[in-house]
Specification:
Helices cover 50% and strands 12% of the residues. It contains seven helices and three strands.
């Protein structure tokens, strides 16, 4: 899913005139921008050197900076900061650390999100989740972590770091995903889970 440069230019013009907009219009613009960035995070999966749309990615980063630096910032919620932070993580994952030049902004968003709301506040352990964890505890000489928080700040339902007495070079993440993680009559994960998988694999090395 790719939106046109005309869309980005038009949105940028609205952002430049943000002081002239009502509070309701500002919230609408914020919602449009976050929806757009979420879509780009879901559907941008090409390696940096093979992607034909790096200029578009630069435009998207400009939109993030604009949103974060002007009057719209006052309307951002903890959930909004999480979306912006995770969007930048997917950009870093797809570009590769050697091409990613927005580390200060990424860390700033991470710090704000962590200070506003602990990541663990969003997660609850379902009976299925607990049953899976209890079953995995029977594995011989293994080490499990329930609701593990990764260096990027994402939560993994269950993380296996040791099996049969041997520490795993690459830990194994197990996500206990119920029906609410999939569209109706589909086995394709929802966008938020695809974004999470990208970050866990490319950023956290899981």
């Amino acid at each position: 899913m790719e939106l046109t440069n005309d869309f980005e230019i038009g949105l940028s013009l609205h952002l430049n005139d943000i002081d002239k907009l009502s509070s309701h219009e500002r919230i609408q613009i914020k919602g449009i921008l976050l929806t757009y960035l979420r879509a780009q995070a879901m559907f941008t999966n090409l390696p940096y050197n093979n992607s034909p749309n790096q200029s578009d990615k630069s435009n998207e980063l400009d939109l993030v900076k604009h949103l974060f630096s002007n009057t719209l910032k006052d309307s951002l919620t903890p959930s909004d900061y999480r979306q912006l932070y995770q969007y930048l993580l997917t950009v870093k994952a797809n570009q590769g650390p050697e091409h990613f030049n927005e580390e200060p902004l990424l860390q700033q968003l991470r710090d704000i999100w962590f200070n506003l709301a602990s990541p663990t506040e969003e997660y609850q352990i379902s009976k299925l989740h607990q049953d899976v964890y209890s079953t995995l505890q029977r594995l011989p000489k293994s080490k499990l972590h329930l609701n593990h928080i990764t260096p990027s700040g994402l939560e993994v339902d269950i993380l296996l770091t040791k099996y049969k007495g041997t520490s795993l070079k690459s830990p194994i993440a197990l996500e206990v995903n119920g029906v609410y993680h999939y569209p109706r009559n589909s086995e394709i994960p929802l966008g938020k889970d695809r974004i999470k998988q990208t970050i866990l694999t490319s950023i956290d090395g899981i």
